[in-house]
Design goal:
71% helix, 63 residues, mainly alpha
Length: 63
């Protein structure tokens, strides 16, 4: 009887693993985005304007 219970638990874990993985990736993405946003805000508040935007004559793509 215990083997059946363990089998059910394993089956449920395997069944919900992809959805759980997706949720964890989403949470990690939001945490990274929040961290980047706070760094950008901190730079803006410190008055450090260097490195914002593009410099004159600089182009994207292959060079």
């Amino acid at each position: 009887m215990e083997l059946t219970g363990i089998g059910v638990v394993v089956f449920l874990v395997l069944l919900f693993a992809p959805a759980l993985s997706s949720v964890l990736k989403s949470i990690a993405f939001r945490n990274r985005a929040a961290g980047r946003a706070s760094l950008i805000r901190a730079k803006g508040e410190s008055g450090d304007r260097e490195g914002r935007g593009r410099r004159r004559g600089e182009r994207g793509g292959r060079g």
